[in-house]
């Protein structure tokens, strides 16, 4: 049975990738096809799906800063959107009741409110996958989207407590004690080294926190998220995240398959799901309007809103609880499953063209931007040094140091992570905050002063996007980039990048040259 899942997931995931769609869309299709062929989800598949979501939330926590959640644009944007969405969606559903639309006509006021609430959430799985695949987890819009999702997850936990009648145990107060043992936990993590114990440490903390929260009647996924945030400041947080990435992606295949196993649809149910999907553009417009009102730049507002324009897997949890409680019929579980699936597919397709669409329509979209901006969205004018290193990770910092040694004060770094920029600046490096995929950034600096741009970013898609923005801004200098594989190197050179270095082979050449210098006479 398990091989059948793997076969269909691989086949349809590969098919989706061949036609330039995310593999997750193929996994969704595989679940529905297997269900149609008579297969059923086993406990193994459900356990894999649950484990994937738990690991994903833990890894989100590892990348989160609590300061990001208390920003006005995050908590106010999330809660305001939820209140307005529920009111408008409730009115939309009741309008369909008046016109006696099938399945809607039988809904009571309470049932309509439950559906509106279930549809108010955006998909954590979908958004995180989008940001990871595009290398945008640490960008301004990536952090904003994740912050909105975390606030939604907190609201989700409160609903589950109210709906299931499971109040937190009196022993839940003991969880506060973990703040006092953080120094000992940090020392424990320090001792695990850099080998096979690193991923095991991640599993231990993620699943351990899950079980602890479940023991005191609090949803375990919240425990995994908070545990990640608890460990985020540790020096090994990034290493743990990278070690868990492949495991998380593998387990999430179970989640996408399980959606297809939720129920078998009929054509009428598919029609109802399509009607519900008509609300997705409103979700985008509402987010976009609120973010602009909160003084966020139009590009950030646009990209964040587009990524959040989908329905959440949490809607299925709400539906399942509502069916068990008699608030909704079984058919609604199928309809909501289809709505979630359709929204996943459309978000993945639309976001693929998001950067290009904004670039082509930025003059119109910028009209909605407020003149006064948040301090975080005001870019500092970079210096006039002719070499720019985009992406100040390990490779970028290595390139910057090498350039500084060869050509002092001729290079500066650029990164979309403001926290990293503050750290680099405090350590004497000439680094600036900015999003290289934002054409407005390049249009607002003196490109005629720049002779060379080094793209030290891990994602090939990022290289494409940044190169496209530079070309659109009429940049006349040279561009260099890194790639992990030869096919990526060839594709980037064909796209117009002047020099692409194979990360692995060039590292070997540099290692050999530096080492050989030790024995020169």
What does this structure look like?
The structure is a single chain. This protein is mainly alpha-helical and about 525 residues long. The protein has two domains: about 375 residues, Na+/H+ antiporter like fold; about 140 residues, Rossmann fold, CATH 3.40.50.720. Helices cover about 65% and strands about 5% of the residues. It has a six-stranded parallel beta sheet, sandwiched between helices. The radius of gyration is 24 Å and the shape is globular.
Short description:
65% of the residues lie in helices and 5% in strands.
Strand content: under 5%
Order of helices and strands: HHHHHHHHHHHHHHHHHHEHEHEHEHEHEH
- Count of individual domains: 2
| Coarse shape | globular
Quaternary structure: single chain
Number of helices: 24
For the record, the CATH architecture of the largest domain stands as Up-down Bundle
**Whole-number mean pLDDT:** 83
Largest sheet: 6 strands, parallel
List segments where confidence is low: pLDDT < 50 over at least 5 consecutive residues: none
Strands in their spatial order, largest beta sheet? 3-2-1-4-5-6
- Write down how many β-strands occur, each being a DSSP E stretch of 2 or more residues: 6
**Class from secondary-structure proportions:** mainly alpha
Rg from Cα: 24 Å
CATH topology of the largest domain: Na+/H+ antiporter like fold
What share of residues is helical?
55-70%
CATH top-level class of the largest domain:
Mainly Alpha
Distance between the termini: 66 Å
